[in-house]
Amino acid sequence: MYQIYNHVTGNFLETLVILGNGFDIAHGIPSKYSDFHDYLMYQKKSNLLYQCDQYFSVEDFWANVEQSLGKIDYSHIVEEELSYLENASDRDEDNERNRFEAVLDDFSCRFLVELTDMVNEWVLSFNYQNLAKQYFEIIDNNKLFLSFNYSSTLEEIYGINQANILYLHGKAVAVSHPHPSDVEVPHSELIIGHALEEYNFNDEKRRSHFLSSNSHKTKPIRKLIVIENEQKIVNYFNNSRKKTSDILNHNEDFFNKIFGIRKLIIFGHSLSEIDLLYFKKISQKLIYQDIAIVIYDCENQLENRKKVICDIFTKANVSCIATNHRYQLQRPQIPQESLIGASRA
Could you tell me the pTM of the whole model? Predict the structure, then answer.
């Protein structure tokens, strides 16, 4: 194991800064998923919006997109398509099967790819120099950064060295591929997903609604088509799961470098259950358990955040600072070369 060495100052980095979406929001960047919804509306992605709003058993898909991705309402997809088939003039079995399979293929294979690509495109549209309204003196190149965000705020606004940053779930970068519907070519590598562990499609409760004899006068072919295509929805569920243990293993080198950290700053992270395993991993790696932890967040969230952190870092000295107060309005001095591409539309 080894610590990260700052070749400019000649010191080891002893402060780890963990960033969530609240960090971008504090800078005036429109990075909420409700902003993403508006972006899709502007881009006229009606089919993607329809799938998000109709194919998941949640009241508001956009309130928490990643959790919503695990709550697929397969019965709605099935009922919608079979209702169409019941009213179609051509009802031969091959047509029923082919259309149903095509709809499931489109959803299970392409939905998550298109959603991820659009998130990537949306984040790349951020104009950091025009949007950023607040600057925090705690952000500098003498610290190590673990970002849960897809944005380049650290580099674009503060000129932080990329070597000091781990983008745990990837960073939005420009990608190109021959055709957006081709799932075999490289797409965005952002990690987006839910944290649910398994999908038990064989549970009779999940089947009962759309295999019921009271629904659309179930025909044998209907039951056969549904059963034949069960695996496709299971594949979607598994592909849309954020595999936290795999992400930890892939970034083991980074977590091995933080053993000497003496201070932890958590800025704008919701500390949702899906991400707590990362914080537990950090706690396990530290050789100094009595570290100082500072939580920057909205005032009405601080006590809840503090309780979660105290349960994980039991010997730490935890304090909180509300980010709705202005701490530094002076723009930091950034080397000109760090601003290349910052004016991106």
Answer: 0.80
Residue 139 banded pLDDT, cuts 50, 70, 90: very high
pLDDT tens sequence across 55-77 = 888 888 998 888 888 887 777 77
Spans of all domains in the chain: 5-30+133-168+251-339, 34-125+179-239
Specify the long-range contacts of residues 112-116, CB closer than 8 Å, at least 24 apart. 112/69, 112/192, 112/193, 112/236, 112/239, 112/240, 113/183, 113/187, 114/48, 114/180, 115/48, 115/52, 115/192, 116/187, 116/188, 116/190, 116/192
